[in-house]
# Entry
Amino acid sequence: MEELSVIAFLPGVPTPEAKSWHQARLEVSAGELADRAERLRAIWRDQVVRHQGTGAGYGQRVGGYPLAESVDLTELRPLTDPLVAKLADEGFDLLRVMLDGTGYDLGRFRDFLLGALAGERPLRISFESEWQLPLPMLAVDPAECGSVWEAFLGHRHQIEQADPGYPWDHAPLGRREQATTSLNKDTALDHVGRAHEVHKLLEERSRLIVRTQGSDLLQALSHAVLYEDVMYFWCHGRFVNAGASSRFLAVRLSDTEDLDGPVVQRKRRSHVRSPLARFKPFVLLNACHSAKAADPGRLKHLAQELIALGADGVLAPQIEIPQVFATEYAYAFLDHYLTGRHTAGEIGQSLVRRFAREFHNPLALAYSLNCGINSRLDLSS
# Structure
């Protein structure tokens, strides 16, 4: 069994009875924790995205997928309200499983962490771990919250999966009047939801580079300096089997080129940590499953490798995500981010709350940040 330890720090002046740093050894195994996280993702996938309609009572066609076919689920509250309550219970259960045990130090740590997470003070939280969890989908005790929505960590706090590595100085670009963005897309998705409006938004608010071929993206990545402030992917994500016990995440644009962690790393290998090179975009990786990380010791998935290569942050969904919702989320996020007035962490939390308040839709919680909680569009690099 691989043993796990946990360390937490809450900024602020400690009282004589308390301390700033808290540490304990977890009693759950790494394998069980990973399996529990996968189970939580599967519940969201099966009971939200793949929930199948059995009657016409909700205004949807029989046999359809009512929670995936529309962004606004207000008219489906008889269905969504109990479902959201169940998702909150499952998210709280995963948090309890992680902290469960009889050790004295673990008990004290559990009291501290649950108290901080459930407190009234909004936090900006960075988790550093090789074992990555679907953090926004975790929850504190719903029974102690004003509403079940408030139980979810992604609703209560700004959260990122942080990179423990040291940053490095990238080649500066100097002051610019306009951001540079890229749209890396599968043209088969051009007419889905608000995809055309996202394209138009990027075109009007930035210097836009459009790529539809994976080979073009790999060619751009091979250059020492990548001038993009925002890199947006609008394509499919899928898992590819690479042996009896191994699989890796890949995305494709309009061609058949698999874009995965290893091929991206190979294209930029000679430029990593060079002060003469630059790869520092904020990445919105709008492809199914693309926030999910590989287990330690396995080949890094695409989002992990983009961070290792220098990306300022990667925002991506933990699960299969409905295409119509994905376009709505992308438009809302990019519309805010391109103003330069808000950080990615602020925008991510605000969208969770907005989609819950206006649409009674929990799927914004499926998007998680790998780094980037402080990312803000900056044209004076």
